[in-house]
């Protein structure tokens, strides 16, 4: 739900937790990359919270650099079932891979820890930033199932910014401008 009003320098949304307005000032957006990549949940959650550093794509991707990570508004049952299947693989891989002595003191996450509460996942907005440093067509990483994978580094969560997504790389700040004009 959006608030109307003539506040061009702010974006306003209602918090589902408190029912109070959340304001995002435009200057806060200035330090974020202009380009964003939309990723369906729960895969976006896995990038932000479960160490997923390969984002699978159907074709080669040539862009390298900083991006915002957009959590898609849609999340189908296929995403949930394929994610659970992948989480089982990741948990098994983490439990059997060789680790340093320091890492051995920390037990690997369970499948339950790798699986979020799907209803609570943020959708339809920017959830973080990352750097695309490569595109691969094979990997031993359990998150990779191809045919291509974007290699992500420097993943950082940010406060959720509601904004409409798009296919491929898109300039998400333009979508904010459109939302403000429509509001």
Report on the structure:
The protein has 183 residues and is an alpha+beta fold. Helix content is 27%, strand content 31%. The protein has six helices and eight strands. β1 and β2 (21-25) form a beta hairpin. 25% of the residues are buried.
Helix content: 25-40%
N/C terminus separation: 11 Å
Protein structure class: alpha+beta
Q: What general form does the structure show?
A: globular
Question: What would the average pLDDT be, to the nearest integer?
Answer: 78
What order do the helices and strands come in, and which of them pair?
Elements (H helix, E strand, L loop, with lengths): L9 E5 L6 E5 H4 L5 E5 L3 H7 L4 E4 L7 E7 L5 H20 L4 H4 L6 H4 L10 E12 L11 E15 L6 E3 H11 L1
Quick synopsis:
With 183 residues, the protein is of the alpha+beta class. It is built from 6 helices and 8 strands; from the N terminus they run E-E-H-E-H-E-E-H-H-H-E-E-E-H.
